[in-house]
Amino acid sequence: MAGVDAKELPKISEEDMEELTAAVGKGNLTEAAAKAKEALEMADKITLNIAVTGESGCGKSSFVNAIRGLGDTDDDAADTGVNETTMQPTAYPHPSYPNVIVWDLPGIGTPKFKSDTYLEQVGFSRYDFFIIISCTRFRTHDIELAQEIQRQGKKFYFVRSKADQDLTNEKRHYDEKGILKQRKAATKRPHQYSESAILDAIRENCIEGLEAGGVVSPRVFLVSRQDLRNYDFPKLQETLVDELPSHKRLILLRSLSNVSKETLEKKKQQLQAQIWRKSLASCAVAAVPIPGLSIVCDTTMLMMSLKEYCRDFGLNENALATLARQNNKLIAELKAVIKSPLSEDITKDLVIKLLTKCGAGTVKYSTYFLNFIPVVGSILSAAVSFPTTKIMLQNFLDAAAADALRVLEVVMEGDVSNREKQHKKHPSPLKGSNIGM
Ligand SMILES: Nc1nc2c(ncn2[C@@H]2O[C@H](COP(=O)(O)OP(=O)(O)OP(=O)(O)O)[C@@H](O)[C@H]2O)c(=O)[nH]1
Ligand SMILES: [Mg+2]
Predict the structure, then answer these.
(1) How far is the CA of 77 from the centre of ligand 1 (A)?
(2) Which of 230, 255, 280 is the last residue of a domain?
(3) How far apart are CA 270 and CA 275, in angstroms?
(4) Strands 288-289 and 155-160: what pairing?
(5) Which residues contact 270 (CB under 8 A, 6 or more apart)?
(6) Of 91, 195, 208, 283, which sees the most CB atoms within 10 A?
(7) Residues with CB under 5 A from ligand 2 (ion)
């Protein structure tokens, strides 16, 4: 199309374009917009139930808190370190995404919960997938449980907790230069301390035990409550998302902590896929003309969408304060790398300002859209409004994701310097950061 650079065009996939064209193709824009709104509302109602199980004291409650982005002492956190084992499934909704519920299940293998009746007792059908935690090797009842979960058609993930403690224990065998202190002929320990070798050995050991018990191709994720950006926690998060049915992916992703570049990227992509529906709904359902602009749209809905993006990427005062506290940073250090407005600064006026900025550039796109979607084109204001709101949402989403990435880089600098300090005390090959894991 003359005058429009294809690279500048609003990103709309072929699939979405087909769905959009089909949605409006029947000639009723209002109906198509209502359908888009309905689809968005349905997506918001999807629930996800995650079961966390394992032996007493292995770190179940700590994991429940970790996956909900909470510290163990935060309000709403599950109690940890107590000597009382959970005797019935306890629901812990995610504090910001209450449709995501993490369940702390009673330990298996106790007199009250035998392997063969356990799943029935804890309400198997409720859960989308299971996390089986151990802080030592996995035992027979863990294996029996996994096999039963598999037989009943659901997924499970083995998590080996307290990886940090294992490293601390191993370090005792090495001097301050990282050289093995005692050289028993029979020792399997390497001469030079190596964090990655220790972690690999633990993982291998767990896998061998599970295979010996009959689990086919087991995967084990090593995690530490103390350091969620390291070890296998980011990899676990990504795997959970990838293996969920596609309609549940967005809800899980939105609730996940921004611990890795990959999680941020996946979040952005999933949110991006919804933008055209948001645009369509906003410029045809409850749309009102905006004075001074040739567009009609629902500014309240757009404002809420921007605030949601901020929540998804941790760009609000509360989330930043928590992140700063957890990482011994000043909140100002985090804010210094943020370029887009925080949730608290998002108002209808700001939405109009952002639309105005996009508006001038998008008039040309309306002609483009007219070619594809003549019915939208028949309502001229919608033809302009749709690409304008779409580009505005897209720009904001891109900026929020880029901010979140810069914030992550700031807190990860801390990881590197902390680990370097450790390294000076106990020289060891640094395990790579999870960016790029
Ligand atoms: N160092 C370290 N300690 C951990 C980790 N995860 C849990 N802990 C500690 O281990 C202890 C037990 O953790 P919980 O999360 O309460 O374990 P639980 O499985 O819920 O225990 P019960 O509810 O009694 O069955 C607590 O003191 C935790 O702080 C970890 O990854 N690293
Ligand atoms: Mg507990």
Answers:
(1) 13
(2) 255
(3) 9
(4) unpaired
(5) 249, 250, 253, 254
(6) 283
(7) 60-61
Same domain, yes or no: 217 and 340: no
pLDDT of residue 434: 34
pLDDT in tens, 147-156: 989 988 999 9
The CATH number given to whatever domain includes residue 142 is: 3.40.50.300
CA of 276 to the centre of ligand 1 (A): 44
More confident residue, 362 or 390: 390
Q: Would 431 be classed as within a structural domain? A: no
pLDDT in tens, 55-88: 888 999 999 999 999 988 888 898 888 665 667 8
User: What confidence score (pLDDT) does residue 6 get?
Assistant: 43
Residue closest by Cα to atom 30 of ligand 1: 162
Nearest CA to ligand 1 atom 25: 56
**Mean pLDDT value of segment 2-8:** 43
Domain residue limits at 27? 6-44+259-425
Q: Distance, CA 254 to ligand 1 centroid (Å)?
A: 26
First to last CA, the chain: 41
Number of domains forming the structure of the chain = 2
| Contact residues for 262 (Cβ-Cβ < 8 A; gap 6+) | 234, 238, 437
Candidate from 230-234, 369-373, 405-409 with smallest mean pLDDT: 369-373
- Two tokens, residue 377: 């084109």
CA of 51 to the centre of ligand 2 (A): 13
Q: Model's pTM, two decimal places?
A: 0.85
Residue (of 318, 316, 335) closest to 326 by Cα position: 318
Domain contains 315: yes
| In-domain check, residue 356 | yes
Of 1-5, 135-139, 349-353, 404-408, which gets the smallest average pLDDT?
1-5
Closest CA to 63 of 231, 203, 250: 231
**Tokens of residue 283, six digits:** 């410029």
If asked whether residues 222 and 327 sit together in one domain, one would say no
- 379 versus 296: which is more confidently predicted? 296
Domain boundary among 255, 270, 287: 255
Find the residues whose C-beta lies inside 6 A of ligand 1: 56-62, 80-82, 85-86, 107, 161-162, 164-165, 224-226
Which of 53, 61, 170 best tests ligand 1's pocket when mutated (most atoms within 8 Å of CB)?
Answer: 61
> Domain check: are 102 and 207 in the same one?
yes
